[in-house]
Automatic annotation (TrEMBL):
Assigned protein family: Belongs to the shaker potassium channel beta subunit family.
Protein name: Aldo/keto reductase
Gene3D superfamilies: NADP-dependent oxidoreductase domain
UniProt keyword annotation of NADP present: yes
GO molecular function, one term: oxidoreductase activity
UniProt domain NADP-dependent oxidoreductase: residue ranges: 15-313
């Protein structure tokens, strides 16, 4: 496993990290979840990402319990706050009240004294940015949080955060968690250059485009019955992916993977890691074998010719797929909350 600095901070994180959305505390039982986390730790993954809203706290409990057997200094624990945790007007967003209360709740569920990386899960237009940043800064001062970051924030909001923190002499965010993969590349033009300049690292989610880039979905063939696309509770995050013209393009990537002795998934991960501003790729897994397979992408270097050929094959793909939106993801979170 190779490690990279998280933005301009001194924190080192594994190039491949393990997430827990739609898996732990829900679709996968506790025993299997722990086996997956154990395999990830064994293979050198040190960044474990979760969120308070994943299965309404159950994912945090599973992750915390599984990691409790290991020395605290050997792993980086990341969680998030913002998405509704209840029906009340203050059970959501990035107000000081919600941030402080949810940090305490996450610490208890995770069974730890501090959170390594506490992330604002969405931008909250209803709360003054200064209030949010001061609350996060106070958590760092109190030792409950070591670093802060954001998830699914746009470039303008990120820049406002940097400028406000600088003006108020607050700890700056060190990471951003966007969706990024071969098929959704919207962060490249503006957000990545901004983050490179300001020392903010990307921890990207959905690097395999919800499984689209593994090659499991074939043009002209039915969706595999055991896949995420066949599950009505999970396939909302795949909006825009399941199109015949896109499946045909993705299938052409197999030749590039083959000549590099990589699987399609490993090719997709290596392609993302070509960007130095990417600190880590978050993978999901339902079996330990999937983790073992995907970590082999760490350290793989694609040639310029490989990258150019991928671009040529996928030309126009960003136009085929909708611009990344939080709507489908939020709908899944809301469905989980209503269970």
């Amino acid at each position: 496993m190779k490690y990279r600095r998280l933005g301009r901070s001194g924190l080192k994180v594994s190039e491949i990290s393990l997430g827990s959305w739609l898996t732990y505390g829900g679709a996968i039982d506790k025993g299997q979840s722990e086996a997956i986390i154990d395999k990830a730790y064994e293979l050198g993954i040190n960044l474990f990402d979760t969120a308070n809203v994943y299965e309404l706290g159950a994912a945090e409990q599973v992750v915390g319990r599984a990691l409790s057997k290991y020395p605290r200094a050997t792993y980086v624990l990341a969680t998030k706050v913002c998405v509704p945790m209840g029906d009340g007007p203050n059970e959501r967003g990035l107000s000081r009240k919600h941030i402080v209360e949810q940090c305490e709740a996450s610490l208890k569920r995770l069974g730890v004294d501090y959170i390594d990386l506490y992330q604002c899960h969405r931008y909250d237009p209803d709360t003054p940015l200064e209030e949010t940043l001061r609350a996060m800064d106070d958590l760092i001062t109190q030792g409950k949080v070591l670093y802060t970051g954001v998830s699914m924030w746009g470039a303008e909001s990120l820049l406002d955060s940097v400028r406000t923190s600088q003006a108020l002499n607050l700890h700056r965010i060190v990471s951003n968690q966007p969706q990024y993969n071969m098929l959704r590349r919207g962060i490249e033009k503006v957000l990545v250059p901004l983050c490179e300049r300001e020392g903010i690292g990307q921890i990207v989610y959905s690097p395999l485009a919800q499984g689209m880039l593994t090659g499991k979905y074939k043009p002209g063939q039915p969706v595999p019955s055991d896949s995420r696309a066949a599950d009505p509770e999970q396939n909302g995050a795949m909006a825009g992916f399941m199109k015949e013209e896109l499946l045909i393009k993705v299938e052409k990537l197999a030749a590039i993977a083959g000549r590099n002795q990589l699987s399609m998934a490993q090719l997709a991960l290596a392609w993302i890691l070509r960007l130095t501003n990417v600190s880590s790729c978050i993978i999901g897994a339902s079996r330990p074998e999937q983790v073992e397979h995907n970590v082999k992408a760490s350290g793989v270097k694609l040639t310029t010719e490989d990258v150019q050929e991928i671009d040529h094959i996928l030309t126009g793909s960003e136009a085929v797929i909708e611009t990344p939106s939080a709507r489908s993801v939020t709908a899944i979170h809301e469905a989980q909350r209503q269970k």
